[in-house]
Amino acid sequence: MTARTMAAACSTTMSSAVRARIMVTTAPAAARAAVAVRACSSRGALRIVMLHLLQEKPRHGYDMIKAIEQLVGGGYSPSPGVIYPTLTLLEEMGYASVQGEDGGKKLYTLSPEGQAHLEEKDNVAALQQVLRKFELRRQERPDADSPELQRAVQNFRMALHTRLAKGKLAREELHAIIDIIDRAAVAVERV
């Protein structure tokens, strides 16, 4: 879940000031997301990245989302609303095919036409450019890829999400959560 998505999900129980604090405390992730979005925003770049990932191995949509998130180095996770229509488009274009379905999940594979498209000179250059941007971003923030840090951030997000899903917070509970988040943000900044 991105910082923006998390803040939006919390909008029913959190004030705009709290959502803004969440956005500020997750600024490095937001910056990484911006790099990923810019890198994939050129015409067809996301399709090329997805074909590249299908070249590695067949994938379900969720696996594609996680692979792109890992490729970027965390902090950006493409939405299902982008990935699934793009997979359908790749299938309609003949670049990908559905190998089978497992429990309602389509397993996409790279077709021979998709392989040929991926090997075209312009597409090779476009893929290299996008992958280079992702690599530069990962090198700028090598600590952000720490498995321990990723686990800790995920634990925080899950704890917050789980607590908010239990229902409306009492004013005291909301203020206690806000105080905890604020203290944690200050402590992280001081390290």
Automatic annotation (TrEMBL):
Coiled-coil ranges (or none): none
Domain Transcription regulator PadR N-terminal: residue ranges: 50-120
Keywords attached to this entry: Signal
Pfam families xrefs: PadR (PF03551)
Cleavable signal peptide: 1-20
Name of the protein in question: PadR-like family transcription regulator protein
Source species of the chain: Herbaspirillum seropedicae (strain SmR1)
